[in-house]
Amino acid sequence: MKKDVAAVCFASVKLFVLALLIMGMSGTAVFAATYTISGTIKASGTGLAGVTVALSGTASSSTTTDSSGAYSFSGLSKGSYTVTPTMDKYTFSPAKKTVTINSSDSKGNNFTAKSSVHVLSGTIKASGTGLAGVTVALSGTASSSTTTDSSGAYSFSGLSKGSYTVTPTMGGYTFSPVKKTVTINSSDSKGNNFTAKSSVHIISGTIKASGTGLAGVTVALSGTASSSTTTTDSSGAYSFSGLSKGSYTVTPTMGGYTFSPVKKTVNINSSDSKGNNFTAKWKVTAYYQNGGTAVKTGQAYGSTTDDESGVEVINSGVLNLSYSTVTTKGNTSSPDDSSFYGLNAGVLATSASAINLSNVTVSTTGIGANGVFATGEGTTITLDNVTINCTGQLGHGVDATLGGTLILNDVDITTGPGANSAAIATDRGSGTITVTGGTMTTSGTDAPGIYSTGVITVTGSAISATESEAAVIEGSNSIVLTNTTLSGGKKRGVMIYQSMSGDADGSEGTFTMTGGSLSASVGPLFYVTNATGTISLADVAASAASGTLINAAADTWGTSGSNGGTVVFTGTSQVLSGNIVADNISSVALTLQTASSLQGTINAGDTAKAVNVTLDSTSSWTVTANSYITCLSDTDGISGTAVNNVHASSGITVYYSNASCAALGGKTYTLNGGGSLVPR
Q: Mapping DSSP to helix (H, G, I), strand (E, B) and coil, where does residue 135 land?
């Protein structure tokens, strides 16, 4: 038994010694060796990141190349392996590698990658310059569309091998070639260029009179394209663009001119047509009639001479002129003579003559060139369906002086941009103008729609002044409007004054308006200075953007200290909104009747010389802030110490003059809404 135990112990010792031999001196176990397979994948000489690399064979694994294109597999035992790279849109050379590991790492297992998709590109030019915005269509193995950039370049990317067709299109252009067939095998296809040529063209030319470009000529184009018109510019040049191939006719027209040639036929094939020039010649002559009777139709009268009218009739002559044109271009040598006596007017009647204009166009461009002018007692001009255009300074549309008479039916008037050019005017010595219908517009500075130093009556018209008052009355003269639209764009709505220039006698102007509308974009609706203004509104849509309804005050006209304004205002069935103001030498008498109303303040600054207010039982005043009046006459609206038709909220007070208003008896009254009427 002891021997057996010794034998077992000896065997155990042998095993222990063997284990020690197997273990290193450090006490760590020694295992079988492992190895690494590595390499790099490049495309065009640069490392290609993101390639999937598969390992198969003795062991299987997968990895991806890093930013430098490198990959590796580690921990591999001896054996045979296959390395295979894959990446969308790339092929690899070689397609795979077989690697055998015996006793060391396997390095340098490199691959070359080549893109399997390609770019097709080119440039499109017109006249040697890149053409932007061309639509380029790709068809064939793949379909797509793009547009050329600012340099005319285009490209399609990500294309596989195959056959493609490239087709450019753009409105107004043809292309050479029309399309291109491109075959992609193993590389990009560059230089697929096209030349564009405009398929639309221009017809142009110049029109001159006496060697100088003639502006404002109407030039008509007809033929292959739909009809078109243009006008010559300040140098007489004209052009039509965007024209396709074909045959065209160019025809110039302008009142008072003939043209040589009368028209031009122009054929467009493959390029623009320039130099289609015309020569204009003034064809009209002035018409002058001394007494007698004449009937004229289809005429073209006019003048380019200073101080000469296109049509002039004197000494009780009678002219019936229809379906004609009157055109003048001359300037006046005397602005006063133009304003008072009609010197240089387009159409002039004097000394008890009569002119009847029907379907006539009157155009003037000179300084002091009024459109139609009647001067002198017994002189009358009647206008039916007439168009008047005056562009020069001091060029009124129609004017009557020294007792002359104008009768307008459906007459359209434009004046400006020349200043001091009212559409409807009377001047020194008064005149009478009656207007029915029509549209009148002024665009010059100090060019009101109406300027009255006489008697002007308007019914059913539309009148606007964009750079001036709507209307002006000077002296003891009047404007009467019915169902008319009247607007002022600058300064104020209506001014009543006495300028002291001698153009108008007296200082009591009258403005009467029934129906229609009256508006002021700037300033008060009514301004009265150095005069008395009697103003009557009945059922008028009245508005002032400034919020001031009436302003009576001294200004630059008249003698200082006595040149204030006096307003006598009557509203009948009239709705009013705005404030009434006056200075210390001016006064206002306001009467509201027949269901009229006012919303606003009266003399809120307590500056007026006097303000008297009269209300009937159907009318009312809504007070928006403290106001100061001389007296309130409101017999039917006052009951005891309550005023029923003057509305004011608590805290608002209307003050009246105890000394100047005996009718109110020095009492304090309660206004409808809690305000007060208080003596002072």
A: strand
Cβ atoms 511, 531 nearer than 8 A: no
Residue among 497, 565, 551 at smallest CA distance from 520 = 551
Asked if 431 and 416 touch (Cβ cutoff 8 Å), the reply is no
Residue 652 φ/ψ, nearest 5 degrees: -100, 135
- The pLDDT of residue 199 is 80
Helix (H, G, I), strand (E, B) or coil at 611: strand
**Given the structure tokens 């809404």, which residue do they identify?**
673
Asked if 410 and 387 touch (Cβ cutoff 8 Å), the reply is: no
CA 520 from chain centre, in angstroms, equals: 22
The two beta strands, 79-86 and 52-57, are: antiparallel
pLDDT in tens, 448-491: 999 999 999 999 999 999 999 999 999 999 999 999 999 999 99
The answer to whether the beta carbons of residues 210 and 174 sit under 8 Å apart is no
Phi, psi of 361 (to 5 degrees): -110, 125
What single letter denotes the amino acid at residue 321?
L
User: Which amino acid appears at position 618 of this protein?
Assistant: T
Q: Are strands 424-426 and 398-401 parallel, antiparallel or unpaired?
A: parallel
352's torsion region: left (phi>0), alpha (psi -120 to 50) or beta?
A: left
**pTM score, two decimals?**
0.66
CA 199-205-211 angle, 5° bins: 170
pLDDT of 172-200, one tens digit each?
A: 888 999 999 999 988 899 999 999 988 88
Per-residue confidence (pLDDT) for residue 224, from 0 to 100:
86
Query: How many residues does the structure list for the chain?
Result: 680
DSSP per-residue codes, 346-362: SEEE-TT-EEEEEEEEE
Pairing between strand 587-593 and 508-514?
unpaired
**Alpha carbon 637 to its chain's center:** 51
The 3-state DSSP class for residue 13 equals helix
Residue whose C-alpha is closest to residue 241's, from 208, 272, 202, 211: 202
Residues in Cβ contact with 257 at an 8 Å cutoff, skipping those fewer than 6 apart: 209, 214, 217, 280, 281, 282, 283
Which CA distances in Å does 528 have to 240, 279, 566? 53, 54, 7
Dihedral angle of Cα 205, 207, 212, 215, to the nearest 10 degrees: -110
| Longest CA span, the chain | 178
Contact 521, 487 (CB under 8 A): yes
What is the residue-wise DSSP string for 101-134? Answer: ESSS-B----EEEEES-EEEEEEEEETTEE-TT-
Q: Quick one: tokens of 321?
A: 């002129």
